[in-house]
UniProtKB/TrEMBL annotation:
SUPFAM superfamilies associated with the record: Metallo-dependent hydrolases (SSF51556)
A Pfam family recorded for this sequence: TatD_DNase
Annotated binding of a divalent metal cation 2, by residue: H119, H142
Binding site for a divalent metal cation 1: H6, H8, E83, D190
Keyword tags: Hydrolase, Metal-binding
Source species: Thermosphaera chiliense
Taxonomy, superkingdom: Archaea
Protein name: TatD family hydrolase
Lineage of the species this protein comes from: Archaea, Thermoproteota, Thermoprotei, Desulfurococcales, Desulfurococcaceae
MF terms (GO), sorted A to Z: hydrolase activity, acting on ester bonds; metal ion binding
Length: 237
């Protein structure tokens, strides 16, 4: 199975195409898309739903909505919160409210042993410190481009780093992937998203697996198995 640890399934048109070949961790952006993602997971067995409020949408969301969403998550046995986190790079004006809402997600992640599917633009160290303070054990850093000297701490904490197809044109992400052990990597697409000249989609995960096979001098099939093993390990309760 090919693993897509961070994909916006509610924006994809042909989900049937991936049945039998992929496992998706589908992230949401607000209350509405969280509910839609839960519904998709009932229709498609290969979808692991994540619910949350994207930092970019905090301006039009409230703390009360976040709490209400977490009650929905608990009542539906949701295992993953995402896309959640902090962003000081693109929406610094809402950072105080982002922190308020993220603390709610951290509370629930700790209490219910949930996976956090994280957005951390410009806030990698702050989010890491909050994870440690809240004693959150399961975290995935989506499309990590943070400080390279933080990678060891992420690894030592048992957290995972995403392999996004942006490595094709983003030198820093390529370098980070090269420095991260296979045991702490998961593939993702962040589809559907246009990053500069690159249209991100689940088909590109195959290229990421080929890259990992070259970097680690392993057969492609072995890499696929290890990434799937990482995925299942992250979601083990």
């Amino acid at each position: 199975m090919l693993i897509d640890m961070h994909v916006h399934c509610n924006e994809l048109k042909d989900l049937d195409h991936y049945s039998g070949s992929h496992l998706f961790a589908c992230v949401a952006e607000d209350v509405e898309t969280s509910k839609a993602t839960i519904e998709l997971s009932r229709r498609f067995h290969f979808i692991k739903p994540c619910v949350g409020i994207h930092p970019w949408n905090i301006a039009r969301s409230s703390v009360e909505e976040a709490r209400s969403l977490m009650e929905i998550a608990v009542s539906n046995n949701i295992e993953c919160l995402g896309e959640v986190g902090l962003d000081s790079r693109f929406v610094p004006e809402t950072l105080p409210r982002q922190r308020e809402v993220f603390k709610i997600f951290l509370d629930y992640a700790r209490e219910y042993d949930l996976v956090l599917n994280l957005h951390t633009a410009g806030t990698h160290r702050e989010v890491f410190q909050m994870l440690k303070t809240w004693r959150v054990e399961k975290a995935y850093f989506h499309w990590y481009t943070g400080p390279e000297d933080l990678i060891k701490e992420l690894i030592d904490s048992g957290y995972f780093i995403g392999v996004n197809p942006s490595w094709k044109i983003q030198e820093k992400h390529y370098r980070i992937i090269s420095k991260t052990p296979l045991s702490n990597l998961l593939t993702e697409s962040d589809a559907p998203y246009q990053y500069k000249s690159l249209s991100l989609n689940p088909e590109l995960i195959s290229d990421s697996l080929d890259l990992l096979a070259r970097l680690h001098n392993l057969d492609r099939e072995i890499v696929e198995e290890k990434i799937e093993e990482n995925f299942r390990r992250l979601f083990t309760r």
